[in-house]
């Protein structure tokens, strides 16, 4: 693949998601609808809908759920040429309740899944080296030693190729042996990336800092160039060595909060690829994240570029963004 054949690449585990078609405890629900799940798949779908050339790397099982997942991603315009099929391990899946107040119950069935068997290959190296940007989350770091090895190797490949790298810790404590292991491995990865985008509670847990500024300072001192901290309904902030930019949330009717962070990441990466200034970048990220919560599926609310532009033109945040010391060039630099 020629240099920069793709704008962005990500990798991880895709799963089938059985969404309850009626409210109530999962063990009492009698109807489910099959959809696609997976944090990285959500991000790459969001980027594809915004018009970027993107690819996803991973493995699925030789089963109907795996075939469904690959077809769904391909239908969004995502390149799936590096998706492998494992004949001996199943595609993971999850059960998801109909959200009550925006926060659904989710139960995972992913142990020893095909997705946990993703390992480095020469073909994957070539593919990763052909992208302008690499995005990853903390989930592959927790799934297995194999996927953890792939993740660290992928970052080395992307760095050598001159790509920018973003990292969403996306903490899943249930997948880790201990909190100490989770913190050590996640921070090891974070320090190797250009930008890190934790939720505030995640950042506090990972760094031991008590405040947003403390979390940001921890990662900036470790060489991370941009720290983007999400704080739910209180908005988000972008910290660099040059300053801080803040953006409140956009008011929307929340149906399901799952996938909001993935939408935010897609918007932020899209803004980076388009060379937007910090204020506009946070606005795009916040808008995509907000729209992601307006539908029951993890990715159903992710907008096209036309829909996003219409939303931004019509919507108004709760207050104006603020900036301290920062310059426009700070976002466009590495």
How is this structure best described in words?
By secondary structure, the chain is an alpha/beta fold. It is 38% helix and 21% strand. The strands form two sheets. Strands 5-4-1-8-9-10-11-12-13-14 form a ten-stranded mixed sheet, sandwiched between helices. β11 (226-230) and β12 form a beta hairpin. α1 crosses α9 and α7 (200-207) packs across α8 (212-221).
Summarize the topology.
Blueprint: E1 6-11, E2 15-20, E3 32-37, H1 39-49, E4 54-61, H2 64-75, E5 83-86, E6 93-96, E7 106-109, H3 122-129, E8 131-137, H4 139-143, H5 145-160, E9 164-168, H6 179-190, E10 195-196, H7 200-207, H8 212-221, E11 226-230, E12 236-240, E13 243-247, H9 260-274, H10 278-292, H11 305-314, E14 322-324, H12 328-332
Parallel strand pairs: 1-4, 1-8, 2-6, 4-5, 8-9, 9-10, 10-11
Antiparallel strand pairs: 2-3, 6-7, 11-12, 12-13, 13-14
Number of helices: 12
The helicity comes to: 25-40%
Q: How would the global form be characterised?
A: globular
In the sheet with the most strands, the strands line up as 5-4-1-8-9-10-11-12-13-14
Low-confidence stretches: 324-330
Rg, nearest Å: 19 Å
Largest sheet: 10 strands, mixed
Report the β-strand fraction as a percent range.
Answer: 15-25%
Secondary-structure element sequence? EEEHEHEEEHEHHEHEHHEEEHHHEH
Query: What is the residue-averaged pLDDT?
Result: 91
Structural class: alpha/beta
Based on DSSP secondary structure assignment, what is the total number of beta strands? 14
Distance between the termini: 23 Å
- What's the quaternary structure here? single chain
């Amino acid at each position: 693949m020629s240099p920069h054949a793709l704008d962005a690449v990500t990798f991880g585990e895709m799963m089938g998601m059985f969404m309850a078609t009626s409210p109530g405890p999962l063990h009492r629900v009698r109807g489910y609808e099959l959809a696609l799940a997976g944090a990285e798949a959500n991000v790459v779908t969001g980027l594809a809908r915004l018009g970027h050339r993107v690819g996803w790397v991973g493995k699925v099982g030789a089963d109907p759920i795996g075939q469904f997942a690959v077809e769904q991603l391909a239908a969004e315009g995502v390149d799936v040429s590096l998706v492998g099929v494992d004949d001996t391990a199943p595609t993971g899946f999850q059960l998801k309740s109909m959200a009550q107040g925006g926060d659904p119950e989710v139960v995972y069935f992913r142990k020893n899944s095909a997705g946990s068997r993703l390992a480095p290959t020469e073909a994957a190296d070539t593919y990763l080296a052909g992208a302008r940007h690499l995005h990853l989350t903390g989930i592959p770091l927790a799934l297995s030693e194999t996927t953890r090895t792939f993740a660290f190797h992928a970052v080395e490949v992307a760095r050598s190729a001159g790509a920018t790298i973003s990292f969403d810790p996306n903490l899943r404590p249930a997948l880790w042996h201990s909190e100490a292991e989770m913190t050590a491995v996640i921070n090891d990865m974070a320090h190797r990336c250009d930008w890190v985008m934790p939720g505030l509670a995640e950042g506090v847990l990972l760094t031991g800092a008590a405040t947003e500024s403390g979390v940001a300072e921890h990662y900036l001192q470790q060489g991370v160039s941009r720290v983007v901290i999400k704080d739910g309904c209180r908005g988000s902030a972008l910290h660099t060595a040059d300053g801080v930019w803040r953006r409140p949330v956009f008011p929307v009717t929340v149906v399901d909060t799952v996938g909001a962070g993935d939408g935010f990441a897609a918007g932020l990466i899209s803004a980076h690829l388009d060379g937007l200034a910090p204020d506009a970048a946070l606005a795009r990220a916040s808008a995509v994240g907000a729209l992601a919560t307006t539908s029951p599926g993890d990715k159903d609310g992710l907008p096209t570029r036309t829909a996003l532009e219409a939303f931004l033109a019509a919507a108004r945040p709760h207050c104006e963004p603020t900036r301290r010391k920062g310059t426009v060039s700070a976002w466009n630099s590495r």
